[in-house]
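QA checklist item 7 of 12: single-chain prediction sanity check.
[x] sequence parsed
[x] length recorded as 52
[x] structure emitted
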Amino acid sequence: MSDSENKQRNREIAENEADRQTVGDIRVSAWAIAAAVIIALAAVGWVLIHNH
């Protein structure tokens, strides 16, 4: 494998890894947002129940 082929292969591997990392980050963010919404709804429900 020549040096230029090796560099191209490494570049493609790095791009694939970056894409995989981005998808993982989005998935984690979605879970964090969902958890925050559930916690907020629970807090609002708790306040509404205890104020009446």
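[x] summary fact logged: The chain has one helix and no strands.
[ ] second reviewer sign-off
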